[in-house]
Amino acid sequence: MSVFDKRQCALGEGPLWHPERKQLFWFDILGKRLLSRTADGPLEWRFQNHVAVAGWVDHDTLIIVSETALLRFDIPTGKTSPLLDLEADKPATRPHDGRADPFGGLWIGTIGKGVEAGAGSLYRYYLGEITQLKTGMTLPNSICFSPDGRTAYYSETTERRILRQPLDAQGWPMGAAQVLIDLSDEELRPDGAAMDSDGCLWVACWNAGKVLRITAEGEIRGAVSLPALKLTRTEFGGSDLTTLFVTSGAMGSSEPHAGQTFAISSGAVGLAQPRVILG
Q: Cβ-count burial of 96 within 10 angstroms (0-12 exposed, 13-18 middle, 19+ buried)?
């Protein structure tokens, strides 16, 4: 394990490995900023409101989710332009977790800013339109997709459960979601997750300082401990997709490594993040 970036995030989240740029981007949600770093050093862009989820569109473009809209973000200039509104009429909510799907879409989970029960929703942006997939959620997390693209995973962190959702040939939910694993007995809260090429989820556990590797059958097959309790999400990257990046939060913590971003030699190979297709 190494510290990839020492900058402290109040709530580090949403790491994205851009496969064309070979560059990691991530957010400090409460700090309202997007961060990255290259061989030349750290980079940072600030926003007027909360930003939390990103996907890559092309070499120089990201799609970023703010608390009111989906934004087109030009990496070289840092300029943004709006694409679509998202919960612009709900000032008490913000985006929290999300990930591109294998069909060119982007799944987005929102929450109440005070993590109010039932204030969150799950959406899919696909070919220029946003569809609400699920409402009445409290803390949607762990959004990722199986290697064959036929299963989506997400968690309700407050319920300590990860669910698996079958998808149809265009990536839309098909039938009811089923529980993959319930971590109540372990007293663990599943936060953000990434998928490896063997179909296992690497799940950051909030307030536990560990990342779990969970199989598609719902079995825990390993754990990695890190020097920060409030781990938030994982992402595979590096030249061969074997490095696991892990973000964390510093809110309310006095740990020296709280809020930093870590890099782990995982021993697994991740999945390259698919491109988001703008409508």
A: buried
Residues written for the chain: 279
Series of mean pLDDT values for 10-residue runs along the chain (279 residues): 95 98 98 96 97 98 98 98 96 97 98 96 97 97 97 96 97 97 96 98 97 98 96 97 98 91 96 95
Q: CATH no. for residue 62?
A: 2.120.10.30
The pTM of this model reads 0.96
What residue type is 36 in one-letter code? S
157-192: burial string, b at 16+ Cβ within 10 Å, e else: bbbbbbbbbebeeebbbeeebeebbebeebebbbbb
Q: Which residues of 113-137 are buried (b: 16+ CB within 10 A; e: fewer)?
A: beeeeebbbbbbbbeeebeebbeeb
Q: Give the total number of structural domains in the chain.
A: 1
